[in-house]
Amino acid sequence: xxxxxxxxxxxxxxxxxxxxxxxxxxxxxRCQEWLAMNYKVQSPVAAMVALSxxxxxxxxxxxxxxxxxxxxxxxxxxxxxxxxxxxxxTDLPIEAIANEMxxxxxxxxxxxxxxxxxxxxxxxxxxxxxxRQALKHI
Length: 138
What we know:
CATH class of the largest domain: Mainly Alpha
Number of helices: 8
CATH superfamily of the largest domain: Homeodomain-like
Order of helices and strands: HHHHHHHH
Strand content: under 5%
Largest sheet: none
CATH topology of the largest domain: Arc Repressor Mutant, subunit A
Number of domains: 2
Shape: elongated
Helix content: 55-70%
Structural class: mainly alpha
Radius of gyration: 16 Å
CATH architecture of the largest domain: Orthogonal Bundle
């Protein structure tokens, strides 16, 4: 797994996944850049397939090779990294965060978040939100 770091609220989650970005496939790079600004939209993988101009199977194969993960996994990684940032820095309700990240089903978001981090969103906020607050006062 890769280590992700956040430095400020305005940073795009895409920046944290730059190490997974492949520079020799222009079509995939264009899709990754588009996704950095549009990861909240419904059906982002279908939109990237259309943007790439590639057949779906070719897109998935090339994206997976370039990013080291399937397109949907990449979308989830972007969304979850942004969700972590929001959990650490705001008091927004979990359901509102799920909706803001592009998940209509907050329980799906919570299950996915727990599967990927080992913590529920609420526990993540308790652990890392308080750490961030403590570090601000040092």
